[in-house]
Every structure is written in structure tokens, then in C-alpha cells.
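TL;DR need C-alpha cells for one chain.
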Amino acid sequence: KNEAFKEKYLNFFKQCQDVCFREGYSYELFKELENIRFGKDIVFSLKGNPSEGDYVLFSIILPSERPELVKFESEYFNRLKALVLEIIKSGKKVKLMSFCKGEGDEEAISKLFNMIPNEYHKNISTYFYRGDLNEALEVIEKSESVVATRFHAMILGFVFKKSVFPIVYSKKMTNVLEEIDFKGKFVTFQNMRDLTYEKFKENAPLSVETLESVAKDGEKQFEKLDEFLR
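>> reply
TL;DR here they are.
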């Protein structure tokens, strides 16, 4: 947001042997340095097996944990509530997933769950990440589709060949969506009113060609480390 911040990082990066950004916007800010590289997020290189899911997975955050998002919290939860109810009424189950307890994800899940009428609670389950990565990946892999506020919920949803509806809270998410030429629908916190069941239904999984391309590019993240370790 200011030149002083950028200058501090510029000086820090000058001291590094190798710096690899996972999205192009940040790379462009520092590309004048010879030790700067760009490779898509390493998670894209994870091998995901497509599977038939039986629930729609929601990755949600607590907006009040971020000063710039506080004013959007009420509409965020109201829109999520409406979408959850529409999905349940369509005959599907919903799972609410916390990625980070420390940043309020579990509190957000509790808040959303309590906003939903009791008669629909039987159609909702929860998953709180506690450090078992394989278990968490399985939760995403077994979903039918993903409504993703968390950055890596979005990436992992793509990797596991799910239709993903991103709720964008940071430029890093929009940067990645632009770089993979994402054609689906998504909303930002500034236009949360566009989070509707109709738009959610329109999204489809990324093409095999796109996934193969970004997976190959994601492997660049650690290529210098691989050289060092060899």
C-alpha cells in the first residue's frame, strides 16, 4: 500500500539467494532483482483424483478478524445463509470447514450454523482442521463442489477437479484467477450481493489442460531448493 513497505522488502530480497513468488503481480513489483522468480502455487502440483462427492463444502472466514472486512461481515453471513439454505432445499448436504481456528474460522462456522433454522441442521456437518493434512485433503476430495473464501480451499478445490465458487477477500485470489484464465463466476466482499444460488450452479471444474499447465508451473516453486539439495 506504500513505497516504504515495498522498499523494505526490496532490501530484504536482495539478501536472498532465491525468491519465488506464486502470483505474477508480486513478481512484477520486484522483477528488477536477478534472484526473483515466479511459479504458480505449489499446491497446484498436488495430484488429485476426481471422485463423486455427496456434499457442498464451504470454507468460510470471520471477516471481523480483518479490519478491512469488518463492514462486510453482516452481508457475508446473510448471503452464506441464503446459499446454504438453497443448496439444502435442492436436496444436497452441506459441510462447513475451518482452515484456521486462530483466525476465527471456527467462530465463523458457529455463527453461520446458529443463523440457520434448526430443521436444516441435520443436513449440515462441520470439519475443523487440527493438523491432520491428509484428513483435511480427504474432506475436500469427497466434496461435490466448493464455496471457497480461503485461498487454499480454492486451489485445492481446483486440484481435486471440483466446481469452485470463490469468495474473494484479497488480491492474491483475483491475481491467481486471472493467471489461470478462470472463466467461472466469483464474488468479492465488495459485491457480495452477487452471491446467488443461480450463479453458484453455473461454475464447472477447470479443464484438464488448465490443470496440467498450472501443475507443471507449480513445480517451479522448489526448483532452486531441489538444485541446492542435490
